């Protein structure tokens, strides 16, 4: 190893400028908490004079107290690396001393981030994500980039050393010569393409929320000024000609695309993926820079997806999922998802090769039974249509809307058909790949030795048809294959149990 | 990788999970279920009685309410009986499996090497009959975990010990 070994074995403090960061953070929090009561006080004491003076005094005293607290917190905050015990230790607390001990092999991810304040001062924060049912998250608030990178490498490389000792065979195939050139780099052009072709759903939700908000505002406004709404709504409905509807649609489309593009740029600006020793470093972001270090053997599930437009542009979206221990907290598990918003097939294969050791091939395919589409048709087409017709027969006015069924039935029917067509399971010795989706076609890849549990399920009325369901549980979620041939599913369950129980590889 | 030379594997010669004979839950477990159902039904009955006392309008439907209640109780008993009958578990050399479900029969298999931790619970009523329930957790979260009720406490303890031994060996 290099000369940095001693560096972290002694307890050390954060950068001195950490005081500023700590101060700014607590000041921000306090102001946020105090603002409302303060406004109240100001209104109450209106007219008593000296108001400005009192306010300034209050703010100054708050700031002084916070400054002292920040200084003390800075003084008390130390961290060091215990090489022998393989632990990273953080001491903190002014009155109540807390010692946070993190075992290196429990570290899941180390992130280097920079908020706006930190960017101004020129320091970074280092956050450590740990695996474990008890949630222990550590964060160093002010650290310069060099130290942060070194410490990050230290925290993660130590751990890979210990893995080296236990599973030497697994490491052999992983140890490729370190290359510093980025594996993947997203150009502005690609970001633009991503913005145009993905995340329609999320943006649509955002915009409809916005429109509803605007409508509510409009309503409040007309109520407040007692404008005759009849008048306006009459004008609106009159104006709703076909042409204006088209213009509205085009406008909505433009808004969706713009928000999409802006979001993509904010999140993935300067997206870069670099190979560092045996891990992958990913960095991105326009205002807040986000750095993530990923260990390939910690990956539980990798997925890539593509829709029709993306296919035409040779663009893929990848998701890499690590073990998420906090099932209840979905936001937390989302955070461990690492997304590569855009890459082409060659780049995808490169990334997959790094994570899985090889480019996974699709093995024998399993198709779902036609019952898959049958039940869905019943629930999504026959039932609503029947209900609609019945209500229409009872209540006269609904009959005028019967035409809605004309586009509804073929639309839903086509969607179901595609869902059925794309629902596939591919199995070979090394990989299980599940394909699914209607518009975005997703492939989820897992390695059998990373399976945690398997469930086979069959409804009693499917016994004769030999149809059943398969659920594969992994530490990063489940794979659900529906309406498969049950004899085949049973064979697979036996085969995978055999594989898991024979495997010498560590799943994490 | 060294001992992993499985060129052609006859999947049909692998041990078949579907042919394993399962151990049914302890017969006293039905008593525990009965107590729970009784409590549940009593609470509903109490609610209905207060409704009948307070609202005179509801009293005209007294026969309908009582008959619905009775049908509900019988159905509840019937389905629970069926459900308890359908449940069973088995320990193999390298994994544990549990089957349950009336409408959908589902079998879950957890290899010993994937167990994270095990909990042995003794409920209030279970303890009267000397029963306990085993909960087996994996990293697969709630969906990938097992809950096996109605095992004789001594048996449950020995299973737990066996599993603990297997886990420690696997590590």
TrEMBL record, chain A:
<feature type="domain" description="YdbS-like PH">
    <location>
        <begin position="74"/>
        <end position="149"/>
    </location>
</feature>
<feature type="transmembrane region" description="Helical">
    <location>
        <begin position="20"/>
        <end position="43"/>
    </location>
</feature>
<protein>
    <recommendedName>
        <fullName>YdbS-like PH domain-containing protein</fullName>
    </recommendedName>
</protein>
<feature type="transmembrane region" description="Helical">
    <location>
        <begin position="49"/>
        <end position="72"/>
    </location>
</feature>
<feature type="domain" description="YdbS-like PH">
    <location>
        <begin position="422"/>
        <end position="481"/>
    </location>
</feature>
<feature type="transmembrane region" description="Helical">
    <location>
        <begin position="372"/>
        <end position="394"/>
    </location>
</feature>
<feature type="domain" description="YdbS-like PH">
    <location>
        <begin position="268"/>
        <end position="352"/>
    </location>
</feature>
<dbReference type="InterPro" id="IPR005182">
    <property type="entry name" value="YdbS-like_PH"/>
</dbReference>
<feature type="transmembrane region" description="Helical">
    <location>
        <begin position="239"/>
        <end position="266"/>
    </location>
</feature>
<dbReference type="InterPro" id="IPR014529">
    <property type="entry name" value="UCP026631"/>
</dbReference>
<keyword id="KW-1133">Transmembrane helix</keyword>
<keyword id="KW-0812">Transmembrane</keyword>
<keyword id="KW-0472">Membrane</keyword>
<feature type="transmembrane region" description="Helical">
    <location>
        <begin position="200"/>
        <end position="219"/>
    </location>
</feature>
<dbReference type="Pfam" id="PF03703">
    <property type="entry name" value="bPH_2"/>
</dbReference>
<feature type="transmembrane region" description="Helical">
    <location>
        <begin position="400"/>
        <end position="418"/>
    </location>
</feature>
TrEMBL record, chain B:
<keyword id="KW-0812">Transmembrane</keyword>
<keyword id="KW-1133">Transmembrane helix</keyword>
<feature type="transmembrane region" description="Helical">
    <location>
        <begin position="60"/>
        <end position="82"/>
    </location>
</feature>
<feature type="transmembrane region" description="Helical">
    <location>
        <begin position="29"/>
        <end position="54"/>
    </location>
</feature>
<dbReference type="Pfam" id="PF03703">
    <property type="entry name" value="bPH_2"/>
</dbReference>
<feature type="domain" description="YdbS-like PH">
    <location>
        <begin position="87"/>
        <end position="162"/>
    </location>
</feature>
<protein>
    <submittedName>
        <fullName>PH domain-containing protein</fullName>
    </submittedName>
</protein>
<dbReference type="InterPro" id="IPR005182">
    <property type="entry name" value="YdbS-like_PH"/>
</dbReference>
<keyword id="KW-0472">Membrane</keyword>
């Amino acid at each position: 190893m290099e000369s940095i070994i001693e560096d972290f074995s002694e307890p050390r403090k954060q950068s001195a400028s950490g005081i500023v960061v700590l101060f700014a953070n607590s000041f921000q929090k306090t102001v946020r908490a105090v603002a409302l009561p303060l406004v109240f006080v100001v209104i109450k004491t209106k007219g008593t004079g000296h108001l400005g003076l009192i306010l300034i005094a209050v703010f100054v005293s708050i700031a002084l107290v916070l400054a002292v607290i920040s200084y003390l917190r800075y003084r008390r905050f130390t961290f060091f690396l215990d090489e022998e015990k393989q632990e990273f230790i953080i001491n903190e607390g002014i009155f109540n001393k807390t010692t946070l001990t993190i075992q290196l092999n429990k570290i899941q991810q180390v992130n280097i981030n920079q908020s706006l304040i930190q960017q101004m001062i020129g320091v970074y924060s280092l956050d450590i994500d740990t695996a474990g049912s008890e949630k222990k998250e550590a964060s160093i608030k002010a650290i310069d980039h060099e130290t942060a990178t070194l410490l990050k490498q230290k925290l993660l490389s130590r751990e890979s050393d210990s893995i080296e000792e236990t599973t030497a065979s697994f490491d052999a195939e992983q140890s490729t010569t370190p290359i510093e050139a980025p594996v993947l780099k997203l150009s502005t052009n690609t970001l633009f393409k991503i913005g145009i072709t993905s995340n329609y759903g999320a943006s649509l939700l955002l915009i409809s929320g916005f429109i509803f908000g605007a409508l509510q505002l409009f309503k409040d406004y007309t109520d407040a000024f007692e404008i005759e709404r009849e008048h306006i709504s009459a004008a609106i409905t009159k104006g709703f000609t076909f042409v204006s509807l088209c213009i509205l649609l085009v406008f909505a489309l433009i808004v969706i695309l713009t928000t999409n593009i802006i979001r993509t740029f904010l999140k993935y600006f300067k997206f870069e993926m670099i190979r560092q020793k045996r891990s992958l470093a990913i960095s991105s972001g326009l205002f807040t820079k986000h750095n993530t270090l990923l260990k390939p053997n910690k990956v539980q599930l990798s997925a890539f997806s593509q829709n029709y437009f993306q296919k035409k542009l040779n663009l893929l979206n990848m998701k890499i999922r690590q073990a998420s221990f906090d099932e209840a907290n979905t936001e937390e598990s989302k955070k461990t998802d690492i997304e590569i918003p855009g890459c082409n097939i060659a780049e995808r294969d490169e990334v997959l090769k790094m994570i899985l050791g090889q480019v996974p091939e699709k093995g024998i395919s399993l198709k779902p039974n036609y019952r898959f589409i049958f039940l869905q048709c019943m629930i999504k087409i026959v039932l609503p249509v029947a209900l609609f017709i019945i209500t229409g027969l009872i209540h006269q006015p609904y009959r005028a809307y019967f035409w809605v069924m004309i586009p509804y039935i073929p639309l839903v029917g086509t969607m179901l058909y595609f869902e059925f067509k794309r629902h596939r399971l591919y199995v070979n010795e090394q990989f299980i790949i599940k394909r699914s989706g209607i518009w975005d076609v997703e492939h989820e890849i897992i390695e059998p030795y990373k399976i945690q549990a398997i469930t086979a399920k069959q409804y009693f009325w499917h016994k004769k048809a030999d149809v059943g369901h398969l659920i594969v549980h992994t530490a990063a979620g489940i794979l659900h294959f529906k309406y498969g041939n049950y004899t085949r599913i049973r064979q697979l369950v036996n085969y995978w149990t055999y594989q898991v129980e024979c495997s010498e590889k560590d799943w994490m | 990788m060294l001992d992993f030379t499985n060129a052609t594997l006859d999947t049909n010669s692998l041990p078949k999970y579907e042919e394993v004979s399962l151990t049914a839950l302890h017969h006293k477990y039905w008593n525990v279920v009965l107590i729970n159902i009784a409590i549940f039904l009593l609470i509903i009955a109490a609610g209905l009685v207060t409704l009948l006392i307070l609202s005179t309008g509801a009293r005209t439907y007294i026969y309908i309410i009582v008959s619905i209640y009775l049908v509900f109780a019988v159905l509840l008993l019937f389905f629970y009986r069926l459900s308890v009958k359908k449940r069973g578990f088995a320990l193999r050399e390298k994994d544990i499996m549990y089957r349950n479900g009336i409408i959908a029969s589902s079998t879950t298999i957890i290899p010993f090497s994937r167990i994270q931790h095990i909990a042995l619970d003794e409920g209030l009523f279970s303890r009267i009959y000397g029963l306990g329930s085993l909960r087996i957790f994996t990293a697969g979260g709630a969906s990938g975990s097992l809950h096996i009720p109605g095992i004789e406490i001594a048996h449950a303890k020995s299973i737990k010990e066996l599993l603990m031994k297997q886990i420690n060996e696997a590590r």
